[in-house]
Amino acid sequence: MPPQLARNLVARRLASTSAAQTAATDAVETLAGTVPLHTSYLFLHLRNPISELPSKPQSRLFNTIRSRALDWGCLVNLCHSIDDEAYNINKVALRSCGDADLLEGCKATLYTPSAGNVGLEIRDIQGDNVEEKLATISPLFGVHAKPVVPTIMKSDSDVQLYVCTHGSRDCRCGDEGGRVLRAIRDHLRSRDLSLKVSVNETAHVGGHKYAANVLVFPHGDWYGNLRAENVPNALDVALAASPSKRSSEPPDQTLSRFWRGRMGLSKSQQIDLIS
């Protein structure tokens, strides 16, 4: 091969490698700002593992709650934990189409700044009392000027983790999310914890390509691209977070490249916070 041609080939390869590295760096740097603006988050607990859900689960009860909550700036999702299997509700199935197999009942956990740095539990939500249950939380969103009724209880856990494992929606969530979920449970069993930690699976949160996605409450931080080897450090950060942590505090530097955003921040605020 002529020397000049060889030099040209090497130069092109170097340029291609540099462009790929730049693109990879940009992808990491722009992970912040990938969380939609929301002021609160409401999880509906299922006895069904998330692995049993269809790609796009729906129900009248879920749709009623989500429609009202979206008006309040609150995202709604489905979740499952081992504790939910003992909860006294019917074994429910969610339909992907048609009118059969509706979600008949559930409990819910709400995270909203107006409630302080805790999760609020709303139990025994059914189709015939959903309006009453929604009325109990509407004062938290300034909808009605009356106190919240005492049927809402504070969550008994200090830190709540939600890992997207919705494999029927995207296999990456099932595969990577499943591995991270197992790693979290394994590491928690090996630790002497002073805090009570709740570990949950969650349905689609948005951003399959960022799997594994993990949401950390009560502060509402979203992390993406996590792998099992990142779990020890991620747990250290989550368990060390101050209960009085403010939404304006930047994420821990050791997790900044995984940080997608936070509840209560716009996309531009998320980007500004990490830059």
From TrEMBL:
Tree of life domain: Eukaryota
SUPFAM superfamilies with a match to the protein in the record: Thioredoxin-like (SSF52833)
UniProt xrefs under InterPro entries: Aim32/Apd1-like, Thioredoxin-like_sf
Alphabetical list of Pfam families matching this protein: Suc_Fer-like (PF06999)
TM region(s), chain numbering: none
Record's protein name: Sucraseferredoxin-like protein
Species whose genome carries this gene: Sistotremastrum niveocremeum HHB9708
